[in-house]
Design a protein that fits this description.
CATH class of the largest domain: Alpha Beta
Mean pLDDT: 96
Low-confidence stretches: none
Distance between the termini: 61 Å
Helix content: 40-55%
Number of domains: 3
Bound molecules: uracil
Length: 410
């Protein structure tokens, strides 16, 4: 394989065959193909795109770069959900235990937050003791016991994606549709699923800004999933205001607990039920009953215990990560809320310390926003439209200003 020739072929709009793509990915994973050539290839893909056959071959090659989870012959159907990322999106924490009530197995591999979007692993780690690093035998034993495991990507699952994602992150090649499709789908296919539902977001707080871009991404991911034998559904969901009423790690866990105890905000409950019913064997009404009746909550408590978390802490979670500064924000006027821009709230939350700038940074579990007003609500001047949780007064000042900039009252 002469790599410069392959880079030139892609640069000039040619189509690579499955063998060429397989060779590129395997020699990159082994460390034989240097980062500078892989960056050049990623940039060529960014500008030239990939055909469906190339995207499928790339997904397959990334999947084959590591281990895939294997399941016993007679185990229940394996299902999962993937979201392309949003602000205040804590659906996974509610949906995974809910689906496990349906005698399905939910081997959920999640990521950490990067940029303005939060990550499920960071949220779970706000629960004292919760261990997201499960080996494959540990995950299997847990699935056999309770039907759900929530964990991070190990070094052995899709190592090509881990390496390529880090390179894309610093070479301006993250927002490339075929690279996103292969990255997301290779990780999900490594779970050896029977069914997958994709929550593809669009709007100011999402990766894809327009519905059209999100629809294209959703369709490509769905096609790859189906081609690999996984029943794959995709739903498009707006991400123009934060989901639910909280943004920030511990604050989102608290809201998830309330939702699992039947007290969730409508948008979070509805989205969770819409997504869960795509891969469940029971009706949306049955799922809604399990959520409001406490069955999913019981499963969540068992999940936390199984992964070493302090289940007792869930009962008083509002006191587990208190932020030094908790400040109510008063509405500057009266009327209906027209806008609470998700992208701006995500950035403000990141600056408070809830997210990271670089992959190796740590997150502050205590900070973020709570009691967020929802678009369409009527509000009187001086009423609380949100609460900032911050480390310092200066950080709270900055977050409050950003919040008021994100808010429009009609
Ligand atoms: N999430 C991923 O895992 N990969 C991407 O490329 C984008 C979002």
């Amino acid at each position: 394989m002469h790599v410069p020739t392959l880079i030139e072929k892609k640069r000039d709009g040619g189509e690579l065959d499955a063998e060429e793509i397989g060779e590129i990915v395997s020699s990159f994973t082994r460390g034989d193909l240097p980062d500078y050539q892989m960056s050049a290839m990623a940039m060529a893909v960014f500008f030239r795109g990939m055909t469906d056959a190339e995207t499928a071959a790339l997904t397959r090659a990334m999947l084959d770069s590591g281990d895939v989870l294997t399941w016993p012959e007679d185990s229940p159907p394996k299902v999962d959900k993937h979201s392309t990322g949003g602000i205040g999106d804590k659906v996974s924490l509610v949906l995974a235990p809910l689906l496990a009530c349906d005698e399905l197995w939910v081997p959920m591999i999640s990521g950490r937050g990067l940029g303005i979007t939060g990550g499920t692993l960071d949220k779970l780690e706000a629960i004292p003791g919760f261990n997201v690093n499960l080996s494959q035998p540990e995950a299997l034993a847990q699935l056999e016991r309770i039907g759900v495991a929530m964990m991070g990507q190990t070094a052995r699952i899709c190592p090509a994606d881990k390496k390529l994602y880090a390179l894309r992150d610093v070479s301006g090649t993250v927002p490339s549709q075929p690279l996103i499709v292969a990255s997301i789908m290779s990780k999900k296919l490594a779970e050896s699923l029977d069914a997958l539902v994709l929550d593809v977001k669009f709007g100011s707080g999402a990766f894809m800004k327009t519905r059209k871009e999100a629809a294209e991404l959703a369709e490509r991911m769905r096609e790859v999933g189906l081609a690999m034998g996984v029943r794959t559904a995709a739903r498009l969901n707006p991400m123009n205001e934060p989901l639910g009423r909280t943004v920030g790690n511990a604050l989102e866990v608290l809201e998830s607990i309330q939702t699992l105890q039947g007290q969730g905000p409508d948008d979070l409950v509805n989205l969770t039920l819409d997504l869960a019913s795509e891969v469940s064997t029971v009706s949306r009404d049955t799922l809604a009953g399990w959520l409001s009746g406490g069955r999913a909550w019981e499963k969540f408590v068992r999940l936390v215990e199984a992964q070493g978390g302090d289940a007792g802490a869930l009962e008083h979670f509002d006191r587990v990560h208190p932020a030094p500064i908790v400040r109510e924000i008063a509405a500057p006027g009266s009327g209906a809320i027209d806008r609470l821009d998700a992208g701006s709230i995500g950035r403000a939350s990141l600056e408070l310390g809830a997210g990271r700038g670089r992959a190796e940074d740590s997150v502050d579990h205590s900070v973020g926003f709570s009691r967020l007003a929802k678009v369409g609500n009527r509000i009187e001047r001086g009423e609380t439209v949100g609460v900032v949780h911050a480390r310092t007064e200066a950080a709270a000042d900055q977050a409050e200003a950003a919040f008021l900039g994100a808010l429009r009252i009609g």
